Amino acid sequence: MKTRYLIAVMVIVAAGLVEYGLVSLVNLNDHSASGRTGSPGAPAPTTSNAPPPVYDVTSLIKSTHKFVGVTVSGAPGSMAPIDAFAQAIARKPNIIEFYEGFMDGFDASGVRRAYQYGALPLISWEPTKVPMASIAAGDKDEYVKAFARDVRTLNLPVAITLAHEMNGNWYPWGRQKTTAASFVAAWRHVHSIFVSVGATNVIWVWTPNVINPAPRVRLGPLYPGDAYVDWVGMDGYYTHKGQKTFSTLFGPTISSVRKFTKKPILIVETGAESGSSRPTEITDLFHGVTHTPGFIGFIWFDNRGSGSWRIDADRASVTAFKRGARSSEFGYDVHGRATTGAG
User: Fold this and answer.
1) How much is the pTM?
2) Rounded mean pLDDT of 184-210?
3) Is the CB of residue 110 less than 8 Å from the CB of residue 98?
4) Spatial contact of 32 and 263, defined as CB atoms under 8 Å apart
């Protein structure tokens, strides 16, 4: 009898342990699911000590929606300027561009703030004090590896454009001090280091200036190749003395680029100088980006630089921007959620 009684007790205890284990597993799975970011590209949660799977940026690279972004002084160190811009145009920007010097540390906090806002962070990485030939030779490999590891550790989507407007002569890495071969070698070298440490959560954006100021400078020799580039960027502004339409401002560069790549095109810097023509030029910009094949969006330079590009005090320009940004093509964030306005 005692033996039968003991066996019965053991069976009951075992069943209880199994039930407890199943309930615990369900609770653990529920907790993990609630901790996901909601992004189609976000890595699955992990309970091991191994790093989580790298953020998959494929859906962003191949997005069927368009980006309307901004770069504004103070952001993303503070998101207040972004909030003010979003309120003005009644649309949350879904790219936030900012600038970092080559040899500066990776701004993980800024990237995190931009991503939490619902925007793709885009870093314009400027090698002001380091020759491209030195980068290509590996002289700064330890720095690049550390930067890349930090990008991988944060594990959020980041777009990077290295040494933008390289076809101009106004930056130290421009054509007067850097050969096309050195530029390409440096770009490929940096890209390869990122891949080697697993930082594939980067969207690489190769960004020349529009060719109008230097039409004889060939872009083809400056292109690192499709294996090293995800998007083609362009910097170009509507100015009082320059081109007045999307086709004249960007058309020649589009024709040049399409001779060697079919990669998507993002206007990384643009703006229109203040004046009576600015609302029309903003409307033209939205129309061009929306209806030109291969274009995925633009980033408005809402700062005071070589011209007065800010639109916050220009009611007619803000109205034109609102009208263009109202399109549902621009209404989504990087978490995969649709947006209906600045709120």
Assistant:
1) 0.85
2) 98
3) yes
4) no
